[in-house]
Every structure is written in structure tokens, then in C-alpha cells.
Amino acid sequence: MATPINLVSSDRPRLASFVALLGPALLLIIAALRCIWEVDFWWQLKTGEYVAQHGIPTVDVFSYTMTGQPWIELRWLYCLLLHYVVSWGGVDAAILGKVVILLASFALVTAPLLRADNSLAAAVTLMLAILAAQQRFFVRPELVTYLMFGLFVWLIARYRRRPGPLLWILPALQVAWTNAHTTFILGPLIVGLLFAAMLIETAVDRRHPPRRLLAVTGVLSATAAACLANPYGLSGALFPFQLLSQIRGTVFKQYISEFRGPLEFGGAFTAVLYYEILIAMCLVAAAGALWRTRRLDAFWSLLCVSQLYLSILAIRNLPLFSLAAVPFVLAHFGAAPAGRAANPGASPLRSLLTLAVLAACVLESWEIATDRAAARQGDTNQFGLGIAERRFPSRAYQFLREAGLDGRIFSTMAESSYLLYHDVPVFSDPRLEVYGESHFGRAMRMQENTDEWRAAAAEFRFEVTFVGIGSSMLNRLEENRDNWRLVYFDDVVAVHLRNGYRTDLPRIETAAEFEHWIVGLRALLPPPRPWEQLGPFERATSTAWYTRVAQALLVWRRDAHALPFARDAVAAFPGATAARFTLAVTLDRTGDAPAAARAYEEYLALQPADSAARRRLATLYIALGRSKDAAGLAP
User: Fold this and answer.
1) In whole angstroms, how large is the CA radius of gyration of the chain?
2) C-beta of residue 191 within 8 angstroms of C-beta of residue 151
3) pTM of this prediction?
4) At residue 294, what are phi and psi to the nearest 5 degrees?
5) Which CATH class is domain 541-631?
6) Where do the CATH 1.25.40.10 domains begin and end in the chain?
7) What is the pLDDT of residues 439-498, one digit of tens each?
């Protein structure tokens, strides 16, 4: 195994290598400093409050559809800690805690294998790993998994260098992991990979004496047994396998993007690009090691391949592969044949590459800190502390309370988590394990199929809907105008009431009424500064904020009112395909055929495979007397 770096010896890396490592450190801090944006935050914070006041839950207490049904909540310890952290220091403390945990996680997987000759490779690998993983840098229970993953790796690396009793810390860590996140099963898996690697190495060169194999067997058994140390016993220990079988089902993967494989996203998601480059880096490191030494380190190889497999299953697992890829590359990059020391060299090329890595990290940090990276992705997340703007329905919830709307509510998934936090019983929420695939699938179909919605509305006697304005549920409510009326909307949520319920709140219907509401909306959502006019340190504006407002107004047949927001969406980031398409549709519906044709042309330049848009543009060309151009669009 490669000798780790010794900071007090004469063999320490040159200053330039340390400078290169500062780049990934800066990038990681900036990437982790993001506002509270994840919808799970609210129900997890509420669960922590419940645990503090009532103890660990065993049955659902937050919904009106699953009340009293079994609820296995193995994240209870994380939720409780989140509750105490937020109670003490607010959401900013939770965000700063996330930064510290992520720094520790990446440091733990890097430090054991950092050497003088691979510090530049470490900087490059860390940069790629952070960029591939940063789409999951949320205040969520998986932070515990990242930290525990790092601790397990660090302790195992230390044990492999200098066997001793320190490895027996792992079962104690496993108890905490089991009660903080449902992926705790990775703990026994990692120790099992160590045992498998030792068997392989023993078979090849009789490296490990029987007593050492026996010791690791004991640690593995104790770590696996530690999974039983949870409030639910065997049911809790087996719960990850139940979740895995549910999540691999077609319904969850169909509607929840984080359960899909990364290759399904393609070039639309920059994290996937860095993920693919990181895989290539691992392959290059492996090929180099095989060429020089004719062997790969068994443990680091098994760890990397196992996490690669998990990441292929679901994009949410990219950070796990990122954490495993770092030690794999460091263990094999520049590995020298036995008996020959590696030489880090002192070439001008190395110094140039060091500066290039630092510059790349600074550039990526600037993109993230100015929200340009988020805008390019159509993301609504923002850099900094506090709560993300225009993400959560705080104003709509205030309207509910002030209007005294206490009828049974149907809310879309993201909004349910926020309502749950405020003690509003919900139809469903992001706690997928509580509802199961059948209930979740029905909740999704209700938003896509009018008959499904009507049947559910009659069965559950909904009186209020609390729906995100980007949801397809708006179409169902508009199709059922005879039964539902719009009484409130802002840039996040629309509220509808069942006709006959609270008749003192009138329908928003006429042009003048919409104009009144839009004046208030414009105070909250002013036009953005155009992308091309942004100064170097000005923050970009999310195009999604304007796109979803325009699309909602189109659903409500307020095409003229939608047009300014559609134009704003394109101004915020001209490369946003959803914004370009929304502008084209809006111009088309307002009757401006020449402008609509230009807008469709600009959209198709970004999305040339959209056959429906090509057909519509051909129709516009014919209407404009451009038959030759229309013929050119034929498939």
C-alpha cells in the first residue's frame, strides 16, 4: 500500500502542490454554501421536534390518509439533531454544519493516501468528485452517510497500514449510522469489502495471517449486529432492503428524478459530465497502475466498483462514488514498482498544471457563488445562507391562515412538506416509505388524469388545493372549473377552493382581477437583469421563476399577461430551453405569428429533436407564406 504523506519529513510536497489542494477546498466550501432548498428539510425538522417532545415515532401522525399506520423512521437521530441545531442557531447553523461535514468527509477519504507524488492528481480528482457530487449537497440525512463513509474509509486505511484495535470503533459508529440514515447498510458492506480484499490478497501472496483475518471477521460480525441497535429491531435492520425494492419500482423512478440512473440525464445535467470524466480518471489510474505494477489494490478497487454500481442505479448516489473514487485514484496514480520510490518531479509542466487546477476551481466557485451555474441548469437553488427565495409557499400559507381555510387540503408533494411543518394534515408528503408505491402512484396519477382527480376529490372530500404553480395539477383544476375556483396565486403556489366552500372568497377570473394580482406579483418578482448585462459579481436570476409563472397564466388562458414573464425567462438566461419554448407558445397564442416563428427557430436551435415544435413552426411558415422554409422542416 502507498505510503501516506508525512508533513514533518523532508519528503513533503512542494508548496505548489498544497496550493493546488486549496482550489478543491475553496470549491467544496462554495458548493456547500447553498440556501435551504430541499423540500425534505421541513418534514425532517418537524420530525425532530416530534422526537424531542414525544419520542421516536412508530405510527404516522402527520397525514390524514395514513394516520396510525406503521412508520419506521430510522433517520430519527439526524432529525433530532437538526431540530436542536436549528433551535440553537437557526437554519444558518444547519448550513454551516453541512459545510463542515462535507469538508470532513472529503478530507477523510483523501488524507490516508495523499503523497508527494500524487498531490496534483489528488487536486484534479477532488475537483471532479466535488463537481459530480455537489448536486446532492443538501441539508439531508445523507450527510451522515458521507461522514460515516469517510470515517470507515479512514479507519480501514489506518488499519491496513498499522493493524490494531482501532478498527473496533466501527461497530460503535455503525450504531449512530443506523439511527441517522437508511443507507446505514453501507457500513457492513465496507467492512465486508475489507474482508474480501484480505482474502484475495492472502490467496495471492499470503499477506495476512489468520489472526488478522479472524479480527476483521469479528469486526464485520459486530458491525452487522450493530444494525439491530435501533428502535425497531430486526424490522429496522431489514428496512433498507424494503426501501430498495420499492425505490427500484417503476412508479418512483418515473416521477422522482433522483432515483433514475445518471446516464438517463445525458448532457442536460453538468454533474453527469463530471461523473463521466471522474470514471475516466479512475480507468486511467487503473490502467497506469496495471502497466507499472501489474496489480490493483484489492480493497480500493472493490470499494470503487461497488459505489460505481450504486451510482449507476440512481443519480442520488453520485456522491458515494465520488468519495470512493478519490482514494482509488490516489492509491494507483503514479504507483511505482516495488523497491523504487516515486518521484514527484519539479517540472514547469507540473507547476503549470497546478495553477490550471487552481484556476479551474476558482472559476467553478465563481459560477456557483454568482448563481450562474444554477441558472444554466434551470435550477432555483441559490448560493449563501438562509432559506432559498421563491422555493417555499410561505406567503400562500399565510393566506391560508389569515383566511381561516381549515377544510381538507390536497397539496402537491413539495408544498406538503412545508404544510406538515406547520401542523397542517396532508394527503401525502415526501416520506415515501410511509405511503408506499401504491398511494404515491395514485397521488401522481391524480395530477395527470382528470378522472383520477375527480374520483379522489369525491372520495377524500377535498375543499382546498394548495398546488405549486409549476405542477400539471393546475391543468386538472382548470379542466374542473365547474367544481373548483382560483382564489389566490403568487410566484410559488396557487390556491383553489371547491365551489360551495367559503363563498365569501371570490374566483379570480376577469382580466382586471388578474391584473390586480399580477401587480402584487410583480412587486415580488420584478424583471431580471438580462444575462448578457450581468456584472462579474452580480447574481444571476433563475429563469424557472418566470417560466413557471408564464406557464400558469397560460393554463388560466391569460396569454397577454403571460407574455412579459415569458420574455423575462429568456432574458434571465437565453440558453434555457424551457424558457424559449414557453415564449414561443405564448407568442403563438397571442397571435404574433412572425415573432412566434422566430421564437420557435431559437428554441429548435437548442432542441432540434422536438418534432412537435418543428411541425408547429412549419404551420406558422405556411401561414406566413414561407412554404419553402416549411418544406425544409419535413422529417
Assistant:
1) 27
2) no
3) 0.92
4) 60, 25
5) mainly alpha
6) 541-631
7) 998 999 999 999 999 999 999 999 999 999 999 999 999 999 999 999 999 999 999 999
